[in-house]
Amino acid sequence: MALIELTDLSYDYPNTCGLDQLNLQLNAGEFICLMGPNGSGKSTLLRILSGLEPATHGTYAFDGQVITTDYLADPQDRQRLHQQIGLVFQNTDVQLFNTSVVDEVAFGPRQLGLSEAEITQRVEDCLALTHSTDLRDRVPYQLSGGEKKRVALASVLALNPKVLLLDEPLNGLTIAAQQQMLTLLKTLQAAGKTIIMASHNFKQVQAVEPRFVIFNADHQIQADLTAQELAKQPEQQAELLTL
Amino acid sequence: MTVKQPNNLPDWLQQPNQLTSQPQRHNFLAHNQQHLTHLLARLAQPAPAVNPTRWQLSPSISLIRLGILVLLIALTNNTIWLWVLGLLLAGHLLVLAPSQLRRFTRSWLLSTGIALVVVLPSYWLVGPATVLLFVCKTGLILASTQYYRLTTTFQDLLSGLKALHCPNLFIMTLAVAITYLRMLGHYLLQTMMALDMRLVAPAKHPYQLIGTLFGNLFLKSHAYALELYAAMEARGFNGQYVNQPTTTNRWHDYLTLTPYLVLVVVFIFGGIYGIN
Amino acid sequence: MHIPDNYLSPATCGTLVLAVAPVWTVAVIKVKAQIKQKRETLPMLGIAASLAFLIMMFNLPIPGGTTAHAVGGTLLAVLIGPWAAVLALTVTLLLQALLFGDGGILAFGANAFNMAVIMPMVGYACYRLGEKLHHPKIGLFVGAYLGINVAALVAGIELGLQPLLAHTASGAPLYCPYGLNVTVPAMLAAHLLVAGWVEAIFTVLVYQFVHKVAPTNLYQAAAPQSRRPWLYLLGGLAILSPLGLLASNTAWGEWSPAELKQRLVAEHISQQAPQGMVQGLHFKALFQDYTIGNLPISVGYILSAVTAVLIFLLLMRGLQHDSQTTK
Ligand SMILES: Nc1ncnc2c1ncn2[C@@H]1O[C@H](COP(=O)(O)OP(=O)(O)OP(=O)(O)O)[C@@H](O)[C@H]1O
Ligand SMILES: [Mg+2]
């Protein structure tokens, strides 16, 4: 059984359509890259997958559990879901709200009620993995864009989620930093995590051979291909390079 | 491409989490997210609820009309007067589409009901006549302000105030406030969502989090202000807030305003001759 | 704390607009000076107004399962400066009244007086005092608590005076039907016990965060050559007082503190007497002193309204001149 199953899932904003009739099955341990033009609904899908909002129509099932409005309205269920799914926002500013990087990363583990030693362990590990150990005593608000991205990932990672959702994590990073981040994500995938990320950097992402889910401008899924399948379709590749 | 392998993952990251769950009574985030989503949906509505194609009043006239109406209702304590004013208002309501009229009625009844609940205890202090008069007047005022809100966009309000010669600085501040209410509201919503994602257990110190939330929002406001000022300067801002002229029929304006002006005159002289 | 329409008599509303007008004038002058130092203060006025809107909208959890709101008057005063806070909060209140139906349109002056003037000013004064005593946080806490409570007290007084100020010949109140003995305790109880603490805790926590993360973004009070604003304020009041007298002579009595106090005492005693008759007689006796001349009361209202509009127009002219020179 797939970890994530979407059936005829649509999402409507007050004035516009966000997602239109998606059918998608994502398995545990996959590396998925969402691509598509601006405004095609990638961020919207990630928000629904993370359980922040219910879909307007259709169903979303996570690990066999259908995520309904009622399910999300129950604080306990909602928190259980959030323990399994982590989301790095497109705008990382909204995500960093503590007064120091250490506190930022420790925020999640503290909620879980871990011991101080465990929390320190997790914080140090996450900072090391994201190459941000030297930022530990800085104020997140004053970090640069790329530094914020790394700290945001560290802070989500500290919760050890089963599924990691990332909304354009490569934006604003140098090529070297992009490669570092992708390698880390690939390692996490190898350890059994499910990675779902939205990105525009086709060239960089290709290296980790993800499964590509491609949206069109009408908020629908246009193609769903593995990296090998995509390699056989030069015109599709050419299109992705323009995104 | 050379992909450098990072150090091995720590043990805790390789094992699945043990799910915990703790009972929770009140979730302030969910409640506020809902509230804010409603506000943002309302702010996103660019067109007025009513589309007056033939009978379009200039924004300043509708503002004046609202002022006169509310003042007259507040000043009088004569039931006949209230009746006449109510009729006038009901006439305006005819313009609304049926569904809008229903929506109007629903929220109007609700707000009037609240006013009734507030004054009801005074029944034992002052008797039924006063309570009734008070509720009638409050109801009428609420109806007129609600009608105004339903038929006026933010842009209309701005050009109305502009036509009434409000200072530019003030208009500009109001315009900035309306625009940034959306942007800051959106930012706050996103921050709450991010917090929600990582708040995997009941918050131990909700106030600490709220303080952080709004502290962040202030810093964002400050950043917006710096950006906006730079943008204003870059576009040659000179303290003048310009808006497009509205094309409306003057004749309609005066015709609509006439009954109100007549009422004002009658009210003033009626006072002298003891009519009200 | 937003007073809706029809709870205050139009005369009271007019008076309160008159009372706020000079404060607005001074605020504009002060903020202009502030803009010269820190250019972004100009757009910050509008943005802070929307910030205040969001603060007032946010439901804060309180023990017992219900929620309360903060107003943020004191907080804004500390963050962007007291005078800028006056203007920003005024804009917030106007938006709320016109577009969201929170607070009355006629009662706008009253709401502005309570929440946009009294609250930030009281709060900021306490904060400065605390700063001088090297305990700014305590000052801020006390300021936020006092600010909202003084504002609530004033709102209670405004509402409670209505049965005295406006009633029919038989003594039936025309606007807010509750006397001071109801409104003041009701307002104070709610704010002293709950809303005040919520406001104070909220204010200190937000301040603490900003202070820690970006202390330079806080408003820095100018060096102590700032006795000027008070001179402006006094001057403004002096210029306006003849107008105020004109308006008050025709419509209602002037509100000198002594008289107000006297009336408060009188009201209290009369309300404690059980029979409605005593109340009615007492009202009548008071009313005699307060209707001066033979002008019908409605003409008085119109006159005061015109006065308010004129003051507003004058205020505008001053502003227009300056907004052109900001080039
Ligand atoms: N808060 C909102 N209110 C209304 N419409 C929205 C909102 N957020 C997004 N939309 C609309 O929904 C559609 C999908 O938006 P979404 O943010 O999911 O796109 P995206 O694929 O992430 O784009 P990008 O690549 O630019 O990040 C767009 O048409 C957008 O205009
Ligand atoms: Mg996006």
TrEMBL record, chain A:
Transmembrane region(s): none
Domain ABC transporter as annotated: residue spans: 4-243
Keywords attached to this Swiss-Prot or TrEMBL record, sorted alphabetically, are: ATP-binding, Cell membrane, Membrane, Nucleotide-binding, Translocase, Transport
Indicate how the chain sits in the lipid bilayer.
Peripheral membrane protein
The protein's matches in Pfam families, at most eight in alphabetical order, are given as: ABC_tran
**Is Ligase one of the keywords UniProt gives this record?**
no
Q: Name one GO molecular function term.
A: ATP binding
Subcellular localization, as worded in the UniProt entry: Cell membrane
PROSITE patterns referenced in this protein's UniProt entry, alphabetically: ABC_TRANSPORTER_1, ABC_TRANSPORTER_2
UniProt similarity note: Belongs to the ABC transporter superfamily.
What's the protein name?
Answer: Energy-coupling factor ABC transporter ATP-binding protein
TrEMBL record, chain B:
The record's listing under InterPro entries reads: ABC/ECF_trnsptr_transmembrane (IPR003339), ECF_transporter_component (IPR051611)
Q: Its membrane topology, per UniProt?
A: Multi-pass membrane protein
Q: What is its main location?
A: membrane
Q: Where in the cell is it found?
A: Membrane
Keywords, sorted A to Z: Cell membrane, Membrane, Transmembrane, Transmembrane helix
Residue ranges crossing the lipid bilayer per the database entry? 57-74, 108-125, 257-275
What PANTHER family does the annotation carry? SLL0384 PROTEIN
Name by which UniProt lists this protein: Energy-coupling factor transporter transmembrane component T
User: Could you tell me which species this protein originates from?
Assistant: Lactiplantibacillus nangangensis
TrEMBL record, chain C:
Keywords (A to Z) from UniProt: Cell membrane, Membrane, Transmembrane, Transmembrane helix, Transport
Which N-terminal residues, if any, form the signal peptide?
none
Q: Taking every annotated instance into account, which residue ranges of this chain make up the domain PDGLE?
A: 233-318
As for membrane topology, the entry says: Multi-pass membrane protein
A Pfam family recorded for this sequence:
PDGLE
Indicate yes or no for the key word ATP-binding. Answer: no
In which broad location class does this protein mainly occur, judging by the first location in its UniProt entry? membrane
The record's subcellular locations are: Cell membrane
For this protein, the parts annotated as crossing the membrane are: 7-29, 41-62, 74-99, 105-126, 138-157, 188-210, 230-252, 295-315
**InterPro entries found in the cross-reference section:** CbiM/NikMN, PDGLE_dom
Could you tell me which Gene3D superfamilies the record lists for this protein?
1.10.1760.20
PANTHER family xrefs: METAL TRANSPORT PROTEIN HI_1621-RELATED
Protein name per its UniProtKB record: Cobalt transporter CbiM
Q: Which organism is it from?
A: Lactiplantibacillus nangangensis
Name the lineage: Bacteria, Bacillati, Bacillota, Bacilli, Lactobacillales
